[in-house]
Amino acid sequence: MAQRTEGVSGQLEGMDPADVMKAVQALREQLVEAAARLEEQLELERRMRENPFAVLGIAAGAGFILGGGLWPVLRPFARSLARAATSPANLMALAAAFGAMRASQSGQDEAEPTPPMAPH
Fold first, then answer.
1. Cα–Cα distance between 62 and 82 in angstroms, integer?
2. How far apart are CA 93 and CA 99, in angstroms?
3. Cα separation of 81 and 68, whole Å?
4. Domain span at 62
5. CB–CB of 62/55 below 8 Å?
6. Is 64 in the same domain as 83?
7. Are residues 20 and 12 in contact, defined by beta-carbon separation less than 8 angstroms?
8. Membrane spanning segments where (predicted)?
């Protein structure tokens, strides 16, 4: 991640500050236009006039979910799922399944069949 930010800062060093400001301004205008288009498509003003409590409820529910309101309820399920997924037996089964998938894909990619191996 540090290499990526260094690359961006290296790119910005060679740019003229006026060009950077123009690019930021263009991005800002595009974001404002996209937000306006989204608002038109969702007809938010009409919906807020017709059903203000429904819009308020949806916004409150979205804020609750995005704010982590469901995490205490979901934590035990996530913990048991993580425990089950990382058990040694399941990890071995997953590794075998991935190996089989890889072998079947490489078998489809090859044009010629490989000769059978001699017994040891």
1. 26
2. 10
3. 19
4. 15-69
5. no
6. no
7. yes
8. 53-74
